[in-house]
Specification:
By secondary structure, this protein is an alpha/beta fold. It is built from 21 helices and 25 strands. About 35% of the residues lie in helices and about 20% in strands. It binds S-adenosyl-L-homocysteine.
Length: about 625
């Protein structure tokens, strides 16, 4: 067996057969730009659609002599051994390479199992000896080679072009490639990283970057400069992750995360970690987790300083905005004291975003011309109360947004009422606002502590008190979406499926394979209520993720096509719902909505809305 990579772009290839196997061959060929003709008397709908869209030529008839003429590659997958044999014989006679699915004797070439990371391809073949090992080896490699290799191969290609442009002697060229490889690939862990442009320049200049990196840089050089576009080593970015909905992370915040060497994240920030985070990024969770206590603030400060001093680009990812009640200010002070440069990437704070997702504008002309962002969990250090609830109670044209207020709500309401606040003032409590776990309870302020207690609302939650809360009855746009509360796992790339789910109110969790550490953090952050499986491969790849603690016991399995559903059944997936193989994202949304229909939120204040709260 002689391995080759074939350039099939623009070249004519024939696929005989109209079922799922043929479709996979067609997809593989089309992905590489081949001109594909399919011959099948009864092609499956997906093939017919490709033909209508002009993506393939489809001949709806049985195979006949002469069909192989002029082709570069021929595939047969008809399920009829006699037809397959004829196709193979004709191809051999015409000197054309041919492959009959699942019939090694009728093949003049085999397709290797492959792992693809951008332009980088790893192929596994067994020379027909033991085909069963190739799929298993491929899965192993899928797990070992992270998604970062596709960026890496792109960077390597750019680097090569740069080296070639310089027309160096061959030995000098090779030395630069050696440096690039040695500096960016960890041979033990099989991980790769994309070098910064500063590093790349030093490889091009023929320096061994590792030596330079070890020398301490002057403090002022460690900030971004025009010469070295890219976050400087030793910089800590205090990044706000937004209120929970991953779509609300800012562009700058996302960019900093993707470029970081290390991310130190809070529990509240976990849902916003980019799912496509390169696997080279170290992750340090410092928030409260199920069984663990939160890391004390002094230790977080020390960790940030330590990572920065090791020359790393550090992102401190915090829920909401980093300077709103998150002790971001204290962390910045600790960095200043340690002489570590830092920056702040502000973000959407929960106190504005969670009300927005509950249909509450925090200001409204004539009704509320002031917003007070206040913590109801007053600092224990100070002697006596810090918040002048009496002053807040005296201003009817304002909105009070109280952070960290679950346990103190009744005390706060008591103080406000005692200071003369109208007990009928509209109020709401919002738990995990903007996420798939959002729950909202609305009531007159005097009733709110009781209503929130009965609904069992827990931190993180905040309360909103003021006349504009009444608008929620009409503006409650988020809870009205058909799939609100659904958090659905699917394999990347996200594409139209994720977009459609998101617009219907669900939170799609599109994970790239193999599942990265960052993706596991995101998955764990909130319950997964369902999983979309688009192919039997999806079933295999996501199977072990079902052990994940975040997998809700009521999770449903949405399968495209009988093959996928069959595989899911064989592997014991729960609550399987089969959709047609060619179902589109809208059909999926309709199917999920029909299954998970929830009680609509009450239109009048005084009740509660949202998942599980009613
Ligand atoms: N820096 C954050 C606040 C951190 S303090 C920000 O700007 O949003 C933590 C408190 O924020 C929680 O106790 C809760 O009151 C509030 N909070 C954070 N995320 C929230 C969310 N998604 N929904 C409701 N309240 C939230």
């Amino acid at each position: 067996m002689y391995p080759v990579m074939l350039e099939v772009r623009g070249r004519s290839c024939l696929v005989v057969g109209g079922g799922g196997v043929a479709l996979r061959k067609v997809d593989g060929l089309r992905a590489e730009g081949a001109e594909v003709t399919v011959v099948a008397p009864e092609p499956m709908p997906a093939l017919a659609e490709l033909a209508v869209a002009g993506q393939i030529r489809l001949e709806r008839r049985p195979y006949r002599d002469g069909d192989v003429a002029g082709r570069r590659l021929v595939f047969a997958a008809t399920g009829d051994r006699e037809v397959n044999r004829r196709v193979f014989r004709d191809a051999e006679a015409a000197g054309i390479w041919a492959n009959v699915a699942d019939d090694p004797e009728l093949c003049s070439f085999h397709l290797p199992a492959r792992v693809q990371r951008g332009a980088l391809q790893l192929a596994v073949a067994s020379g027909g000896e033991a085909p069963f090992v190739t799929r298993r080896l491929r899965q192993l490699l899928e797990r070992r080679f992270g998604a970062e290799w596709s960026e890496w191969i792109e960077a390597a290609g750019r680097f090569r072009a740069e080296v070639r442009r310089r027309k160096l002697p061959i030995a000098e060229e090779e030395r630069r490639y050696d440096t690039f490889f040695a500096e960016t690939v960890d041979p033990g862990r099989l991980t790769a990283r994309v070098p910064t442009s500063g590093e790349e320049e030093s490889y091009l200049a023929g320096a061994s970057y590792g030596v330079e990196l070890a020398a301490p840089a002057a403090a002022e050089d460690r900030h971004w400069t025009a010469a070295a576009p890219g976050p400087a080593a030793g910089l800590v970015s205090l990044v706000g992750a937004g209120p929970g909905d991953p779509g609300l992370l800012t562009l700058r915040g996302r960019q900093r995360c993707l470029e970081a060497d290390a991310i130190v994240y809070d529990r509240l920030a976990a849902t916003a970690l980019p799912l496509d985070l390169p696997s080279r990024v170290e992750l340090h969770g410092v928030g409260k987790q199920a069984s663990r206590h939160p890391v004390p603030q002094e230790e977080i400060n020390a960790l940030l300083v330590r990572l920065a001093r090791a020359g790393k680009c550090v992102v401190r990812l915090k829920g909401g905005d980093p300077f709103v009640f998150g002790r971001g200010g204290e962390e910045a002070e600790a960095l200043v004291q340690a002489g570590v440069p830092f920056e702040v990437v502000p973000a959407v704070t929960a106190g504005i975003a969670a009300p927005a997702y509950a249909g509450i504008p925090v200001t409204h002309r004539r009704e509320a011309v002031r917003v007070t962002i206040v913590t109801a969990h007053e600092s224990i250090k100070s002697e006596g109360a810090q918040v002048r609830w009496d002053l807040l109670a005296a201003d009817p044209h304002a909105t009070i947004v109280g952070y960290m207020g679950v346990t103190s709500l009744s005390g706060v309401v008591e103080k406000l009422l005692a200071a003369g606040l109208d007990p009928a003032t509209p109020a709401a409590m919002i738990e995990r606002g903007t996420t798939s776990a959002q729950r909202v309870v609305r009531a007159a302020v005097s009733e709110l502590p009781g209503a929130a207690g009965r609904a069992g609302l827990e931190p993180p939650a905040l309360f909103v008190i003021g006349p504009t809360v009444a608008h929620a009855a009409e503006l409650d746009w988020f809870q009205r979406r058909p799939l609100v509360g659904e958090r659905i796992l699917l394999t990347a790339p996200p594409g139209a499926w994720a977009a459609k789910l998101e617009r219907a109110g669900a939170e799609p969790v599109p994970v790239a394979l193999p599942v990265s550490a960052a993706a596991r953090v995101v998955m764990d952050a909130l319950p997964i209520t369902g999983c979309l499986l688009r192919s039997p491969d999806d079933v295999d790849s996501l199977d072990e993720e079902r052990d994940n603690p975040s997998w809700s016991s009521a999770a449903r399995t949405w399968c495209l096509g009988a093959d996928t559903a069959g595989r899911a059944r064989a592997r014991g997936w729960p609550a399987i719902h089969e959709l047609p193989a060619d179902a589109d994202p809208a059909a999926l949304v309709r199917a999920i909505a029909a299954r998970v229909r929830r009680t609509p939120p009450p239109a009048t204040p005084g009740g509660s809305g949202g998942r599980g709260a009613a």
